[in-house]
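Consider the record:
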Amino acid sequence: MLLRKHRTLKTEYYGGHDLGRRKKLINNTNIPRYKVEAIARCIMPDILAFYESEEGQREFAEWKRQQEAEKNGVERKPKD
């Protein structure tokens, strides 16, 4: 699954996730929200590029397998 950036007139969303709507964020730090959002805007392109890469796709697929195994009550064997 590749995440692609889409633009509409009112909002911007990635991979079908609407970023225009604001969810109430939990910030248990003394860092102001505007600073957290500024950092997030800076690193978002790098995060998206990683998940669109082959390595990112492999890691995401592995994570999904792990989540499914945990959901089904199957323990995962550690890698050697």
In short: The first strand starts at residue 5 and ends at 7.
